[in-house]
Amino acid sequence: xxxxxxLSIAGLCSSLSLIAxxxxxxPEVEALLSKMTVEEKIGQLNLVTPGGGxxxxxxxxxxxxxxxxxxxxxxxFGVSGPEKIRMAQELAVKNSRLGIPLLFGFDIIHGYxxxxxxxxxxxxxxxxxxxxxxxxxxxxxxxxxxxxxxxxPMVDISRDPRWGRMAEGSGEDxxxxxxxxxxxxxxxxxxxxxxxxxxxxxxxxxxxxGASEAGRDYNSVDMSHLKMFNQYMAPYKAAIDAGxxxxxxxxxDVDGVPATGNKWLLTDVLRNLWGFDGFVVSDYTSLNExxxxxxxxxxxxxxxxxxxxxxxxxxxxxxxxxxQKSLAEGKVxxxxxxxxxxxxxxxxxxxxxxxxxxxxxxxxxxxxxxxTPENRAVAREAVAASAVLLKNDAGVLPIxxxxxxxxxxxxxxxxxxMLGTWAPTGEVKYAVTVREGIANIAPxxxxxxxxxxxxxxxxxxxxxINVFGPRVMISEAFPEELxxxxxxxxxxxxVVVAVVGEATEMSGEAASRTDIRIPEPQKKLIRALExxxxxxxxxxxxxxxxxxxxEFEMPISILQVWHPGVExxxxxxxxxxxNYNPSGKLTATWPRSVxxxxxxxxxxxxxxxxxxxxxxxxxxxxxxxxxxxxxLPFGYGxxxxxxxxxxxxxxKDEISANEPLEVSVQVKNSGDYDGATVVQLYLRDVxxxxxxxxxxxxxxxxxxLKKGEEKTVSITLQPDDLKFYNNRLEFIAEPGVFEVFVxxxxxxxxxxxxxxx
Length: 757
Ligand code: BGC
Description:
- This protein is of the alpha/beta class.
- Helices cover 29% and strands 19% of the residues.
- It has a 6-stranded mixed sheet, with helices on both faces. Strands 6-5-4-3-12 form a 5-stranded parallel sheet.
- Strand 4 (75-77), helix 4 (82-95) and strand 5 form a beta-alpha-beta unit.
- Helix 2 (38-44) packs across helix 14 (334-350), helix 6 (128-144) packs parallel to helix 7 and helix 7 packs parallel to helix 9.
- The longest helix has 17 residues, at 128-144.
- The radius of gyration is 26 Å and the shape is globular.
- The two termini are 45 Å apart.
- The model is unreliable at 1-22 (pLDDT under 50).
- Bound molecules: beta-D-glucopyranose.
- Beta-D-glucopyranose is lined by residues 54, 56, 107, 151, 204, 283-284, 509.
């Protein structure tokens, strides 16, 4: 039986039009709906958190038990462990009138207990199988603790490293972001959502949250539809095409309407254009926040959100407290309430909860499935694969396993900052520090450790960073004493390893920064270390691209390791000592200064491009004080070996629409180590009806080559790769010349062109 959905087409006609959707209705769900009162239906739209997990807003739900029994709750989040979850599920199943099981949600962003690198780090691996595997493990561990619904993947494209939440996404690029979105959804959900080791995923935050103005969290977004569709929307759509079960709205407004109440987004685009048939959940109190946005009182915004297509209200209880009144006043219809409820019940059905509400609750699983050596081994590989070698002057890396090492820096012997932002289920006690990792991997090395500096010296700043635990511990000793202690260790060392950067909560939610340099106390330490002339390696941790212009000028080595997760120290040592040859590539451009932001590889040429000369050119698109180029381009990352790219070939000089194009290139490992490179293909549409970017990423392939080995790498460009959204938002390709660039980063020089007829 096909279900008929009733959609009102606002502004076109006053009558209602019936649109048949391709979704099969589920008899069990329809039977249940027919028994439900309006109050019970509204209850299913209510998502609560009893606290104990992370509260990212000011409100935590009250009287949870009473509400569950009354049928006023559809799901719970922030609760884990079979005991607690069984208790809550029993309350719903045994004590509410209809016994409808609850959803159990959580933010499992980069691992459950086996914490992997932050998503921006994982993205730098450019390894979709590995990323999918980390999501599979996260699902296996989280479901072993009773969770069946995950608030991940976060796929917001961002070109603004001031925004702390860049840590949670995959960076600046929609093509790479789409591949990662798909890998994560498939990893979490598997092929069978009813399996007890898979969980429903949520793509978030719909939409455009990563474009918050000035990089300030929760700030407004205003963007042309052209830019949205060409640069920001693809990863959300990729998650939907991959079958993601739910979508979370974003805090920001889009076209002047907060996303949570934005009908164009939630119905026209999400459901009608993209065919999404899962359910939409708000972000944490984002429904109520429409009051502060200036859209109306709680009743008004709740009705607006339901009518826009929001199905579930996270924490705010705007639906619970006002929808009955709005129904009585004719501001919402029972059909819309029923439709929202149906989508939530369907999700429960798809998870198999109607067959067995306790399907995910197994007291025996945790011990055998969580933090196993196998899972930790994948985490260790993921940390190493995420590491990006930014600089390796004089080939100091890898270092000898018998070296005399001065190990310094406030993150070198620091367990509390290894897991990174959004790891609420992780436990710092399981994290391996860099100091421990070095001892594990190179027991014959002589290591002299000193902290050298605080992460930050300012107690006020430390207080802001320490909201979720002690991340910054300001030493009793004066900064000068810390420095002197470190300098003493350097004297007899062959090499200095300084582990520096951001504390965990210097990025993440509500952690925007206007200055994205390494904090000053650590910069002082780095300057002092560099002045000794000893070989210096910075192991850099952060949740965002940093401005390292000063450090990059120094004759040193820099290994970017993000916030690495539980296996931090072991994997970092693997890379430092050459057990693992780094192959990570940046997925967001690193600026020379915050003044260049937003800066990204797919920028446009402008009518007055600056050209290649070093001389300043008046009346050109440039700056008086800095070049236009970034410090480090998108796709950048070194290896201990070198790769030579040559013989770029296209299968044809001319193709017609709907015809694929074969691209091949010779890649040779010309250095002294086995290693992997990421072959990156960028496309330039030379002339088209809307101004084209100078180049955009369209394909990539990670290949492993033994030292001296050479391979032909082939990539197929599909017809859709030539397409873009035109002025009428049609996804089309226009005939003309295209240039294909292939190489190791977004500055790739090998080029061949072809014509699309
Ligand atoms: C975040 C979401 C998260 C939610 C629930 C919000 O503050 O924006 O990403 O899923 O909290 O924890």
